[in-house]
Structure formats: C-alpha cells, structure tokens
From TrEMBL:
<feature type="transmembrane region" description="Helical">
    <location>
        <begin position="266"/>
        <end position="289"/>
    </location>
</feature>
<feature type="domain" description="ABC transmembrane type-1">
    <location>
        <begin position="82"/>
        <end position="285"/>
    </location>
</feature>
<keyword id="KW-0472">Membrane</keyword>
<dbReference type="GO" id="GO:0005886">
    <property type="term" value="C:plasma membrane"/>
</dbReference>
<dbReference type="GO" id="GO:0035435">
    <property type="term" value="P:phosphate ion transmembrane transport"/>
</dbReference>
<feature type="transmembrane region" description="Helical">
    <location>
        <begin position="208"/>
        <end position="229"/>
    </location>
</feature>
<comment type="similarity">
    <text>Belongs to the binding-protein-dependent transport system permease family. CysTW subfamily.</text>
</comment>
<dbReference type="InterPro" id="IPR005672">
    <property type="entry name" value="Phosphate_PstA"/>
</dbReference>
<keyword id="KW-0812">Transmembrane</keyword>
<dbReference type="GO" id="GO:0005315">
    <property type="term" value="F:phosphate transmembrane transporter activity"/>
</dbReference>
<keyword id="KW-0592">Phosphate transport</keyword>
<dbReference type="InterPro" id="IPR000515">
    <property type="entry name" value="MetI-like"/>
</dbReference>
<keyword id="KW-0813">Transport</keyword>
<keyword id="KW-1003">Cell membrane</keyword>
<feature type="transmembrane region" description="Helical">
    <location>
        <begin position="119"/>
        <end position="143"/>
    </location>
</feature>
<protein>
    <recommendedName>
        <fullName>Phosphate transport system permease protein PstA</fullName>
    </recommendedName>
</protein>
<dbReference type="InterPro" id="IPR051408">
    <property type="entry name" value="Phosphate_transprt_permease"/>
</dbReference>
Length: 294
C-alpha cells in the first residue's frame, strides 16, 4: 500500500506536535527548578536576617553604642570595636581601592596580550580565591613579628590586600563591557587615550566600579581571621594605629562562645551593626549614583 501526501503531512504534524510538547514540558520543569532554588535562597536569607535582627536588636541601646567593652557583668558597650572597625575598614578601602582601580584599568585598556598583564591577572585571581587567614599570616610575618606586637596598621594592611583583587577583577570586567564604539567616537574627536579612558570608559562603567568597591567593603567589614593575626583586638579604648585595635568581627569571635550572657548579647549586636553598616553604605552609594545620572 502506497503512502499518500495527506498521511505524510499528518505524520509530520504529529512529530512536530510531540517535539513542541516535549520542549514545553522541559521548559516547565526547568522553570519549576529555578523557582524552587530561588525560594530556597530567599528562605535562607530571610531566616538569617530574622535570626540576626531578633537576637541583635535587644542589645542595641544608647549605652551599647557609647560605652567601651568591660569585664562581664559591668554593662560594657561596643564603642571601641565600632570605632576600630570604621578606622580599619575606611583606611583599607582608601589604600586598596586606588591600587585596584589602576591595576584593573591597566589590564582592560593597556594590557591586551601582555605577559605582565597576564601575570598580574593570575596573581590577582590567586589572591581573590586565597583564604583570608593566609593574608593575615603574611602580614603577621612582615608587620607584627618584626616589631614584636600587634597593631592597627597591620590590620589595615591585611584588609587592604583583600580589597585589591576584588576591585581589580570588577574594574577589568566592567571596562571590557564598555562598547568599543564609544572609545572610537571619543578618539575620533582627537581626545588623548588617557582622557578617553577616564572620561568615557570609566564614566560609562562607574556603576559596576562602585559595585566592586562595595563588594570589597562588605567583605573586609566582616573579616575576622586576618585581624586575629594583625590588630588582634583591644578591650580598652585605643585609636592608635601602632597599638592593638578592637574591631566588631573580632568581638563577635571572642564573645559569641562566651559563658557570659552579656558578652554573647554584644556579639549578636556586633553582627547586626556590621550588616546594617554594609546595607547603609550600599543604599547611600546607589542613591548618590542615581542622583548623578539625572
């Protein structure tokens, strides 16, 4: 029996319908898996924030913010760790950000195919993935052991080293996303290369560059391991960079496992303050960038 044209058309239609139905089913399954994964991430994030706020808010009083740490049972606060964290984080950001930005600009704009650029990129990626405790140990060997005591400047150096590779990687990636036509248009007007980079490429990528800096601040604000080897912590009031300096992450490490309830409460409040600080910096930076775009 011979096959007619309508039979062939019907068979092709059935195959096409089956293929379309299979693709739709696969799309529904992938969509459901993505939705489940998103829900798991959101549930974990909400759970962490709820635990942090519910435990930390109870210790967030005026006295906590204005008194220094004291022995257990004396109503001590977090003034010295707060000031120590602000000093060390701010100085590390001010030192590490320009170095990271300039290195990232070199990799993206000048270092195409260069062996030096490849070496810098490799070292930067290694630092980005290296455990922060190794950075702390390195700074301990060059800034703590030779002088015989821990210091705030050693903590700043360790945190600055952690800032650099994050800013380098984000700067290079963001500048590579700037369309080549924008650079060519500026160069066609006779602008020198450095002016094209600073006024066109960097300006176009400023949101991404700011995001990189914020990521770096968020990371070093919660780093504990490198500070244990460098600034160590200080139960007394001290803003001298030549002496051991208190910080909120080290306070969390030292107090969270304490047998005293008031110290455990200070650890929870310290964690809440770090989270609130990073959130505040993020909001201020984004509002500022939005204002510049108007």
């Amino acid at each position: 029996m011979s096959t007619t044209m309508p039979d062939l058309a019907s068979a092709a239609h059935r195959r096409h319908s089956g293929l379309l139905r299979r693709r739709r089913n696969i799309d529904h399954v992938v969509t459901a898996l993505c939705a489940v994964a998103t829900f798991i991430v959101l549930a974990a994030l909400v759970s962490i924030l709820f635990t942090l706020v519910s435990n930390g808010i109870r210790g967030l009083t005026f006295s906590t913010l204005t008194r220094v740490t004291t022995p257990p049972g004396n109503g001590g606060g977090l003034l010295n760790p707060i000031i120590g964290s602000i000093i060390q984080t701010a100085m590390a950001t001010l030192i590490g950000t320009p170095v990271g930005l300039l290195a990232g600009i070199y990799l993206a704009e000048y270092g195409a195919g260069s062996q030096i650029a490849n070496a810098v990129r490799f070292v930067s990626d290694m630092l980005l993935s290296a455990p922060s405790i190794l950075v702390g140990l390195f700074v301990y060997l060059i800034l703590v052991a030779p002088f015989g005591h821990f210091s705030g400047i050693a903590g700043v150096a360790a945190l600055a080293i952690l800032v650099i590779p994050i800013v380098v990687r984000t700067t290079e990636d963001m500048l590579r996303l700037v369309p080549l036509s924008m650079r060519e248009a500026a160069a066609a007007l006779g602008a020198p290369r450095w002016k094209v980079i600073m006024l066109v490429s960097v300006r176009a990528a400023k949101r991404g560059l700011m995001t990189g800096v914020l990521l770096a601040i968020a990371r070093i604000a919660g780093e504990t391991a490198p500070l244990l080897f460098t600034s160590l912590g200080n139960l007394n009031w001290s803003v001298s960079l030549g002496q051991p300096m208190a910080s909120l992450p080290v306070t969390i490490y030292q107090y969270a496992g304490s047998a005293y309830d008031d110290w455990v409460q200070l650890a929870w409040t310290s964690a809440l303050l770090i989270t609130a600080g990073v959130l505040l910096i993020n909001i201020v930076a984004r509002v500022g960038l939005r204002g510049e775009d108007r």
